[in-house]
Write a structure and sequence with these properties.
By secondary structure, the protein is mainly alpha-helical. The chain is built from five helices and two strands, in the order H-H-H-H-E-E-H. The protein has a single domain, classed as Ferritin (Up-down Bundle), CATH 1.20.1260. Strand 1 and strand 2 form a beta hairpin.
Length: 166
């Protein structure tokens, strides 16, 4: 990679990689904390897909000679951990809102990832270094559809729990 456009692409990929680091941490937490929920298996599958998407991004970055930034990745990891520190009226247990907030966070990350794949398709085509960008874009769309369904179920569960007598 050489030139201003290449430098911008490297920065863009590094920024998205940092997001992928934080997003994968969130997906792992969501899968762990929701393993007993009716949709827990779907969240675990989503976690696995997010991990595979991060690996695909790393393969693309390797092909384009645009390695990840340890500093940005560290910030992405730290941001996800700091996101856990919020008052939710449940000091030692998971709030009924936690699942909904986790799923909304994942939806934000997957939306950004979908934008990445579309930008790469525009700049590099449907395949980069043997990685099928078109398939990744389609999978991101599928993930967003699943997250919409899961968020709806989580909202129903959270607000039904809020209406239950204590």
């Amino acid at each position: 990679m050489h030139g201003v456009a290449s430098d911008l692409l490297r920065i863009y990929l590094q920024d998205h990689h940092a997001g992928a680091v934080g997003g994968l941490e969130l997906a792992k937490r969501a899968a762990d904390s929701n393993s007993g929920w009716a949709h827990g298996a779907e969240i675990a599958e989503l976690r696995d897909q997010i991990a595979a998407d991060k690996e695909a991004l790393e393969a693309i970055m390797d092909h384009l000679e645009a390695g990840p930034s340890k500093i940005k990745d560290g910030l992405g990891w730290t941001a996800e951990k700091l996101g856990r520190l919020k008052p939710n009226d449940h000091l030692f247990s998971q709030s009924p809102l936690s699942r909904l907030i986790e799923l909304e966070g994942l939806a934000i990350g997957v939306t950004a990832k979908a934008a990445l794949w579309e930008a790469l398709r525009g700049a590099e085509g449907d395949s980069v270094g043997g990685v099928d960008i078109a398939a990744l874009a389609a999978r991101a769309d599928s993930q967003l559809s699943l997250l919409k369904t899961l968020r709806r179920a989580a909202a129903l569960d959270a607000f039904a729990a809020a209406d239950s007598p204590a």
